[in-house]
Amino acid sequence: MLNFTPIREKKTTYLEVSKALTPKQLHKLADEMIDTLLKIIADAKDRDVVVVPSDPQAMDTFAAKAEDKGIAWTLGHVIVHATASSEESAALSSVLARGLSVEGRSRFETPWETVKTVSQCRKRLEESRKIQHAFLHTWPDKPSSITYSPGPWAGDINCAARFVMGLGHAESHLGQLREIMNQAVASRAPKKKASR
Fold first, then answer.
1. Could you give the C-alpha distances from 150 to 21, 118, 158, in angstroms and in order?
2. 0.85 cut: is pTM over it?
């Protein structure tokens, strides 16, 4: 798996990290990320998917509804969010690889409220794997070198860098998922009765 810390610390860029990556390597990196996400939730129970964790720092400035801005994300919420971001990056990487201009976003996120079981989470992850691979398969044999800037925080990026951005976003949620699972497992332990 790629190390995204130097990018977050502004010691390098997505473009620099991804400049030598081939589509074959991007396929492998996508698999590594999905496999990591599946491993984190390997011992999850259905109740863990919907339990609201303790997260005092919860703040989603991009939440569609104002009342959702400060809610802690459930395991299901993190899964659908991370996969939607990876798929959007894969879709936009295809646009760039084919020499087209990126116009707007290309994002669909499964409504997190509908994800209530571990089976749904696993299915979403495998579906995302399929979608990411499918977008990589749309790249021509010689991808375009066209670049664009999604924002000042990213600098100019090409098709490989755009794909890697999605992986970086998913990686940024790994710690959050692990913490949700830790809390879920801890909440399953039987409560000890106070002794008199």
1. 20, 33, 11
2. yes
Query: 73 with 55: CB under 8 angstroms?
Result: yes
DSSP state of 64: S
Do residues 52 and 72 make contact, with C-beta atoms less than 8 angstroms apart?
yes
Question: How do the domains of the chain map onto residue ranges?
Answer: 23-187
Please identify, in words, the CATH class of the domain defined by 23-187: mainly alpha
Q: Note the pLDDT tens digit of each residue in 130-155.
A: 999 999 999 999 999 999 998 887 78
Q: Quick: pLDDT tens for 29-66.
A: 999 999 999 999 999 999 999 999 888 776 666 656 66
CA 174 to chain centre: 9
Distances in Å between the Cα of 64 and the Cα atoms of 37, 108, 111 are 25, 13, 11
Please list, residue by residue across 124-160, b when 16 or more beta carbons sit within 10 angstroms of its beta carbon and e when fewer do: bbeebbebbbebbeebeeebeebeeebeeebeebbbb
Q: How far apart are CA 74 and CA 115, in angstroms?
A: 10
- Tell me if 61 sits within 8 A of 132, measured CB to CB: no
Cα 115 to Cα 131: distance, rounded to the nearest angstrom: 19
Which residues lie across from 148 on neighbouring strands? 157
Enclosing H/E stretch for 175: helix 174-188
